[in-house]
Each structure stands twice: as structure tokens, then as C-alpha cells.
Amino acid sequence: MGSKTKRTLIVLISFIMCLSMTGCFDKREVDDLVNPIAIGFDKGQGRSIKMTLQIAIPTKVAGGGEGGGGGGGKESVSYTTVEAPSIYSGLNMINSYVSKQLNMSQIKVLVFSEELAREGVEKYINALMRGREFRPNSYVLVARGSGNAAERYLRAVEPELESNPAKYYEMVLSAYSYTGFSANTSLMNFYKNMVNEASQPLAVLADISKFEKSDDINTDNSTYREKGRDLPLEGDFKAGDMPKVGTTKSEIMGLAVFNGSKMVGEFDGEETQLQLMLEGDFGYSYVTIPDPLVEDYVVLLNIKQNRNPNRSVEIVNGKPNIKVKVFLEADILSIQSGINYESLEMVNILETYAEDFFKKGITRMLEKTARELKTDTAGFGKEMKGKFLTWDEWIDFNWIEKYPDSKFEINVDLKIRRPGLMLRSNPATGIEVGEE
Amino acid sequence: MGEYKNIRKIGITVIILSGLILTLGVLAYLLVFPYPISANNVLPFFELSRILEYGRFFQRIESVFLLIWTLSGLLYLSCGLFFIVYIFSKTFKLKYYRPLIIPFTLIMFAISLIPESLMEVMYIDNKIIRSYGWLVPFGMTFVLLAIARLVKRKKRGRVKNGK
């Protein structure tokens, strides 16, 4: 074969290869796909589940953005609910009446109803983890209430500040870094903790506001009475019970506690903050504590966790003895009573009182997980796991059965670093108008 | 360093370097996925790269990793084919190895279609090749060495007797 013929042949073959081996046969145009951003799972009849998909409508999202975004949140999504024996059969059914093909890779949020969560979510989590399109970074939520709680919650989500509801979910669920009222309950973390024998999974609690008008607001469902307090602090609520009224009806606060794959209890906002502190995931947040010296007044602190807590587990007489030291830093935001806690003489009183406040809170929360819920949410099993040489020894030890008998020793080290913009508060001057 | 006389140094350096990189990779994987789950993943590093997320902008980076891994997989296949063809040509004292490339490609393609599912391929790779694959480089070389020694002794014996 002459070299000219050879060259022509090579060029021809490479040309054909370039055209035929690009893999364009099974291409899917972005415009031919429909992207749901949230899925809700409710209990259906018998063994079926009801799936609610919240689908983003890209043209409305873009149009809403240009028009200023006012009220754009509601129209930029559409909903569909289907009852099916499993997740993928439901998706198949939806594909038959939605014009475009479903693409699940934009799912940001997976909402399970409380009823379904209490029965057990293992089979759904396994299916979601195995699927290639579902992202391991999507958040797992539990919608409170009976009946079709997940569908109710998803239909009530109307973001006001964003025309893109996917952005709303991303931002509201990553707000735990500055509120502490939820946690990073991604599908990946949920699955890891579900099959891990050293810790148990958690899911964020979600619900719709109960109150329509501000006159109806009450604190009947607050958890402050169980804690022996006279007044509810900001963390003494769970999603749905918050004393608030607004256009945004969805509420995210608290965590659902799971034992294996079944929901067994709930944490309110304060317990969620303490859970984050125990794991070292607490960013910063405003915390209200009662005033140490004056009743009926409160002190506001901006609490930060700059160091991971020191955790250790020892076995004493066959029962785990868990020691935790939590390191916190605080800035003073407000002293309602006007007492000069910023001074070097008085700051220790405030620090000691705040340390005691957190210590009692953490002890109460851990006692609840051990005696009542019997789940190791803070993952103390990880400290225990390191003491075993072989895997079989660790499994025979059976940490999950031993955790409910644990004793807790909690220490909190809190340092007040900054007093805000004021060094001292002066009292208001005026004549007291009283009885003459 | 790329000369033949440095081959020992090059070999040792390459083995240590690649061992270190593989160890660090597996360590990173085990730190993210604890024991029972780490054994269940079909594509471990792909799962690891799926989790990467820096804020709201850097997400879904696994597509970049996949591209690079596909290219390096292609290189690996090409190198493997080259070794097979080269060793074959040296074994049978053939002058040229290039005509062997296309037949061997077809043969390997046909053999690769024999296992019926991905699970069977993984079983062959993990249980059979990794358990008994050492027999060829270590076992066969010793067998060949023993045979060569015997042949040499026989030759020496014949020469001595002949004299």
C-alpha cells in the first residue's frame, strides 16, 4: 500500500471514529428533562407509598428573577402526587404523564412523613443510595404530623426571597451553621449512621406554621415546662410550634431521632444545638440564658464553638462512663438587667452560670437519649470502637445494647471574649411615676 | 534518571511512590466510609468524588475526575496490550510485534465478553486473579530458573564427559 493511500485511509478511519465513538446515541438534551427538586414520601394504602414531587419550572424561575422576584416562588414549581409500590415504579408512572423525562439529579430534599418514619425507612434509603441519579448530599427531612405530612409540607413551601426554590432549600438547610437549630442530615450521613453500630441517624424536623394571625400565637406546645423553666427560650420549640406568623409557612427546627431506621423521638431547637456542640459541628448562634442575679431578666450571648469537644468513654462495672468537655466562647449581646457583667469582677459570675446552664442542658439531653430514646445520637460508640483490636470483638461487645446504661460526666468551659460595642451599661434616668 | 543502568533505583522509587499514593487514597476512602459500608461500593473513588462540595459553587466535581480516570484507564489498557504483545513476540523470537496488535485486541475483546455480569467480573478479579495471580510472576520465574539451571548442568556435564 502506497504511503499516500495509507494516509488517506488513516484520515478516513479517524474521521469515522470521531463521528461514531462520541457516544451521542443516548444523549439527553437539558431541555428534554424535567428536574424535581424535592420528593415527599407518605404512607399509602397497604404497602404502597405516596410520592409527591416538587418540580421546578425553569422558564418561570428565570422570568420571576427578571421581574424582581416578588411572589415568584409560588409559580416556579408544580406538584404531582402518585401512589406506587416503590420509588422507581412511582417515577415510571409519573414519566408516563409528564411530557419530559424525569431527571432526579437535582433533588435537594427528601421528606418522609412522621408516620412512615416511625415504621422504618430502611428500604427507601437503600434504594436512594443505590440509585446513580440521587445525590448523597441531599437533605433528609421528617415532616411532623399525621396523615400526608410530607405532601402537606412540600405544597406549603413558598419561598419569598428566592424565585428559585432549590436555592431556598440549600440556604435554609445550611443555616445550621449560624442558628444551630438543624444539622447536616444529608442522605450520606443518614445512611452511614443507620448502618453504623457506633452512632444513630438524625433527620431535620419540618412542619407548617400553626398560626394564621399574630393574635393566635401561643406557647402551648413549647417544651420549656418539661425543662422546669418559667419562660420559653428561643430553642424550646419544634418545627410547627414556633410562635410566628409570616408568608413563609414552612418551619425547620429540631431533629427527628432514629433508632436504626425507625423514628423514636424528637429533639427541640435547644437539644439540636447541644447535639451539634457534642459533635463539634456547632458554628455560632445567639443563645438566651436567664440572668444569674435578677429573676425575669435574660442575658443574650453569641456562642461559638472554636474547638472540638474532648470526649472519652470508659467501661466501669460493665457500664459506659462517658466524659465530655465542651469548649465554648461567647460575646455579650445584651444584658437586660443592666448589671455590669462586662467588668472583670462580674464576668466570672456570668461565665459560671452559663457553663452550668449548658451543662444541665447537655446532661438532660444525653439522659433523654440514653433512658428514653435508647439511641446514641452523639456517636460515643466511635470513641469506644478505637479500643478494640478486631472487628469481631467490637461486634460481640454490642455497644448499642450497652449505651442506655451510660453515666455522663459533662464539663463546659465557656469564656466570654467580647462585650459588643459597650463596656458598661448605664441605667435609664427618669422620675418614677408611682402612687403618690 | 531514565537510563537503563538506573533501572534498579527507578524500580524501587516507582514502587514506593505508587504504594504511598495508593495507601493515601485508600486511607482517605476509609476515613469517609467506615467499615461495613466501604466494602459495599461498586465504584469507591467515584462515590468519594461525588461527595465533594465546596460551598454552593463547586458541586458535582466528579465529572472532571471521571474524565481523567477514563483517560488513565485508556492508557492502562494500551500499556497492558503492549506488554502482552511484546512478551509474546520475545517468547517466540518474532522480529516484529506490530502485526500482533490487532489479533490480540480482538482476542482480548472476545475474552472480556465471556463473564456474564459485573458481579462475575468482580468475583474473578477479587477472588481468583488477586489470590492466585502471584503464581505467574513469582512461581513461574522460579520454575524457569530451576529448569535453566538443570539445562546448564546437563550441558556442562556433556561437555565434561565429552572431553
Task: Offer a quick outline of the entry.
The complex is a heterodimer of chains A (436) and B (163). By secondary structure, chain A is α/β, with parallel strands linked by helices.
Characterize the structure shown.
Chain B: It is found in: Membrane. Chain B: Keywords: Germination, Membrane, Transmembrane, Transmembrane helix, Transport. The complex is a heterodimer of chains A (436) and B (163). The radius of gyration of chain A is 27 Å and the shape is globular. By secondary structure, chain A is an alpha/beta fold. Residues 65-72 of chain A have low confidence and may be disordered. Chain A has helices at 3-20, 58-66, 72-75, 87-97, 114-119, 122-130, 149-156, 165-173, 176-179, 187-195, 269-279, 347-373, 381-385, 391-397, 399-402; strands spanning 33-34, 36-43, 49-56, 77-84, 101-102, 109-113, 139-143, 202-208, 250-259, 262-267, 284-290, 298-304, 310-316, 319-335, 407-418. With 163 residues, chain B is mainly α. Chain B folds into three domains: 1-46, no CATH class; 52-114; 118-163. Chain B contains seven helices and no strands. Chain B is elongated, with a radius of gyration of 23 Å. The interface between A and B is small, with 11 and 11 residues.
List the helices and strands and how they pair.
The complex is a heterodimer of chains A (436) and B (163).
Chain A: H1 3-20, E1 33-34, E2 36-43, E3 49-56, H2 58-66, H3 72-75, E4 77-84, H4 87-97, E5 101-102, E6 109-113, H5 114-119, H6 122-130, E7 139-143, H7 149-156, H8 165-173, H9 176-179, H10 187-195, E8 202-208, E9 250-259, E10 262-267, H11 269-279, E11 284-290, E12 298-304, E13 310-316, E14 319-335, H12 347-373, H13 381-385, H14 391-397, H15 399-402, E15 407-418
Parallel strand pairs in A: 1-5, 2-6, 6-7, 7-8, 14-15
Antiparallel strand pairs in A: 2-3, 3-4, 8-9, 9-10, 11-12, 12-14, 13-14
Chain B: H1 7-32, H2 35-38, H3 44-51, H4 62-91, H5 101-112, H6 118-132, H7 135-162
Keywords (chain B): Germination, Membrane, Transmembrane, Transmembrane helix, Transport
Transmembrane segments (chain B): 12-37, 64-88, 100-119, 131-151
Membrane topology (chain B): Multi-pass membrane protein
